[in-house]
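Readers outside the structure-tokenisation community will struggle with the description of the input data as it stands. I therefore recommend that a typical entry be quoted early in the introduction. An entry of this sort, consisting of the sequence and the corresponding backbone structure tokens, reads as follows:
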Amino acid sequence: MPKRGGAGRAAVLVSGGADSACLMAWAAEHFRTVWPIYISCGLKWETAERRALRGFLRAWTHPNVRKPVFLKMPVEDIYGRHWSVTGRGVPGRRSSDSAVHLPGRNLLLLSKAAVYCAGRGIETICLGTLAANPFRDAQLTFFSSFADMATRALGRRIRVRAPFHRLTKSGLLRRYRNCLPLHLTFSCLRPANRSGKPCGSCNKCVEWNRVRRESGRRFGS
């Protein structure tokens, strides 16, 4: 039987990927009620991500986890012709982690989520940020500062938690691989338009294949 979790209510920022799938499981163990929140920004891979998220949640259920909430935060007007919007010039297999930077990504997502949560009495927002994340809005100091700012702005306490911030992706998969259907998760920057299948050659596909090897077990794509 799944654990019933602790006290309190939390939102989990989710994609269709393994990190957020593991985060939902973690949150279900630590909170009485958990709302997965997917925020669409108009990026090229989001249709495939949402499909993967729904498939994962059909296969994995927990009494503490509610149905996913889908919100919108379009960025086309501020990102312009960025590769994440156009699908052209997507970082490939030899690119560094810094090449996949999405300007203000966590700032935008947390802002939308904080307003949603404050209106519904949800105090905690969880992100699946890992140790290797190099970006400024993925640091614990940023999360703490954002939580203080949101609390003042909204008049309701907001906390931001990143429980995996000391873990590598390989370590995270090893921790959850036997209890979650991680083969149903999705990670690709350039999925096929119709089938949504991963391209196999972008930065995220290469990373996913590497961490599957490092975790010591094969997972589906």
